[in-house]
């Protein structure tokens, strides 16, 4: 029995060595293991450190991307390279406690296919992160058809069966969190207290967070498209009612029927805004189809450990 741990790392030079030693210490008494670091186009010394780790111990493997492809692609690549009977994915910044790993493994041995985790004790997370993540989960659950629990990040164990499903998914922008919830299987939830980032800054800029959220929502639902129908219907009804009112006013109270430029302007602007909004929504889905049709590789590997 072998366990694979997959760790996406983007400019994490100050975290990688510590995490590697903690993981090794935890896993050594438990079972055979491999730890795969996926260097997501780091510009610091991350890759150098991964090479050194691999020189010391071949169980530390690495894959390095030709540029920054993003967290989700790095996770996916790690799963492609993993050779273990199950895959544990976790962040490189030590926010995901290594102490939880033995418990995850024991639940897997009990027969669960997926052991996912939920972050509690929000006091140790920054206010901004709490706000944006709370908003995201609420919006995601309201708009999409998969149920996501708040605070369930990409810290989970997945059995070989489950990782094979992800390996075979063809979506170019796979939203792994939603996909795992959609996939089913026997799942078990563990809770943990997130630690503050060990070192360095968050690698999720606001731009990346918005992209992540939009991708999550549009990957699992066509509800936003349906809203345009409902909004269109409502606005036409309003416009109809208003035109009735205008006709009545014109016929019975002509002295009051002053041509109001304000109402015209407001309705034109309103309609313009709504149309642009939903054009954007349609564009988002069209873009997804476009990307899928190109069938490009999900990531490009420029280097990997010698034992691949
Ligand atoms: N990450 C990555 N590529 C990116 C952004 C992030 O591989 O483009 C990795 C990062 O190194 C870390 C994990 O994804 O291991 C989570 O990122 P981070 O801790 O910055 O996000 P936060 O915890 O602030 O949500
Ligand atoms: Mg983090």
Could you explain how this protein is built, in words?
By secondary structure, this protein is α/β, with parallel strands linked by helices. The longest helix has about 35 residues, at about 260-295. It has helices spanning about 15-25, 45-55, 70-80, 100-110, 125-145, 160-165, 175-185, 205-220, 225-250, 260-295, and strands spanning about 1-10, 30-40, 60-65, 85-90, 115-120, 155-160, 185-195, 300-305. It is elongated, with a radius of gyration of 25 Å. Strands 7-5-6-4-1-2-3-8 form an 8-stranded mixed beta sheet, with helices on both faces. It has 2 domains: about 1-220 and about 295-305, Spore Coat Polysaccharide Biosynthesis Protein SpsA, Chain A, CATH 3.90.550; about 225-295. Helix 1 (about 15-25) links the parallel strand 1 and strand 2 (about 30-40). The protein has 10 helices and 8 strands. It starts with a strand and ends with a strand. About 50% of the residues lie in helices and about 15% in strands. Uridine-5'-diphosphate binds next to strand 1 and helix 3.
